[in-house]
Amino acid sequence: MAMIEFRNVQKYYGKFHALKNINLKIDKGETVVLIGPSGSGKSTLVRTINGLEDIQEGHLIVNGEDLTDKKTDINQIRTDVGMVFQHFNLYANKDVLENVMIAPRIVLKKSEDENRKTALQLLERVGLSDKAHNMPSQISGGQEQRVAIARSLAMKPKCMLFDEPTSALDPEMIEDVLDVIKQITEQSDMTSIIVTHKMWFAQEVANRVIFLDDGQIIEDRKTNEFFEHPENERTRKFLSKILGH
């Protein structure tokens, strides 16, 4: 069953046509990686899935709910669909543990004991149980991003969106964050959609790879087929440049 379905979706910023006739189904439990040059529409596509960007035409179905229907509760969609951004957006005045606990307390109304237990388990899962009482300013950028991942997981989402989660990190921190994301995708039945420029990571983690350019889906294939036998000439040119570095 499809977790996410785009039907003839069009997205504009004024006269700029950012997403052009997107038709796409992502099934429950899939891990899909979006790649493409800067400005190709990857982040825009991901941000439409939890309503951070509106679409102007077509239909976008998320977990059976049509985001274009005025009756759809967008806050419920955002509870079901977690998002990890390029920048971590942690609360600077709250410690790591509290950053993970705050949303489940307010939105899910979890009891304090249960919430704390879950948050500590998630921090252990992302390798940060020893940083629970540190402030964000006392940990590295890579550790902050892992806290942001734990914070999203604390809401028990059905789907996770990762929008270039390592682009703001120093090179030596990137692998730690990607290892955590890989572990999450392998050990859960959650649907994951990941925007990344790291081709080795896409090859390791994805069931499918989608190549976007100029707001359009150029190629959508199983991972091994995508990298070994890309069909579209534009895809081949992109891969030859990016895999050459």
Automatic annotation (TrEMBL):
It holds the Pfam family ABC_tran. Keywords: ATP-binding, Nucleotide-binding, Transport. Transmembrane segments: none annotated. One of its GO terms (molecular function) is ATP hydrolysis activity. Residues 4-239 form the ABC transporter domain. InterPro entries: AAA+_ATPase, ABC_ATPase_HisP-typ, ABC_transporter-like_ATP-bd, MetN_ABC_transporter-like, P-loop_NTPase. Belongs to the ABC transporter superfamily. This is Phosphonate-transporting ATPase.
